[in-house]
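Can anyone check this?
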Amino acid sequence: AVLQLCRALTTDTSSALLRHEVAYVLGQMQHPISVEALEESLRRPDEHKMVRHESAEALGAIDGRWEDVEKILKEFTHDENQEVRESCLVALDAADYWGHSGKDETVAQDQNLNLDVPQSFAHQKNEPRLLVNHFNVE
């Protein structure tokens, strides 16, 4: 499921809202395998600022690869977009509050799963598209 969501985040061209929601869900799942897709989304200068903002916050929720995530977030604290900059600062502060240890214990556990993880999710052509219904609940 995480891999399919990562593919949707990096290959969908139909809706910034969909990509925003996918980034949010990946942050809730907190799976370290999503770091590359979230980083790819954050690095896109032409991506909608709210998708990039949500990708930054999602990265901050991932503890299993904290050294990688921290480096990415610190890099984008100087982004030209204010929402992205502030989201990276919030993600770093939240991670500090929740006590991200920098230990990669989750990654070590996932290595036992023998997951075939693509190097770049953007290059996955001919993959099934993820369709998500979005309901605005207040």
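Reply from J.R.: I decoded it. Residues 21 and 138 are 15 Å apart (CA to CA).
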